[in-house]
Amino acid sequence: MKKKSVLLIMLLFLFQNVLAQKKREICVIKTSLGDITVELYPEKAPITVANFLKYVETHLYDNTSFFRSVTLKNQPKDSVKIEVIQGGEIDSTKVFKPIALEKTSVTGLLHKNGTISMARDKPDTATCSFFICINDQPSLDYGGQRNKDGQGFAAFGKVINGMKVVKKIQQLQPDQEQYLKPELTIFTITRVQ
Length: 193
Known about the structure:
The chain is of the alpha+beta class. It is built from 4 helices and 8 strands. The mean pLDDT is 90.
């Protein structure tokens, strides 16, 4: 009887892992410096992933840009420094409603090197703009000190190919400014799986 129970538990665990793998979504961000492939986690951050994919499926990210690069050198007034590139800002008349903040304390998705996350002002205000972390950024997690509200940002996936491109984009930025001039074109973001 014990062997059957153990076997049943192992089969259930295997089945859950197969289902979890099928729930992953893969998107390719095509830029003028190369492609960035991201894996999204709808089972952990369903609201955020659905929001991102809505912009992808309606092609609203096409011909947008990476417009901001935050380095350790270009944030002199910030006591808590981060390293990210930010993109995906679209025409304000086409933005969907803001989404609820899926906190890292709930999702378990932390702001590690290569994490993709939604930009926001106050909690529950994220719309289209997203960022990618360069190196681990724990100050962006729930309880982190980057924002005074301590709620962090909604991580929802990670770069699985193209971190060299992410770093090239970050290096385009002069030391004193965060906003890229010219911005780096995002030709398309497409869902491939």
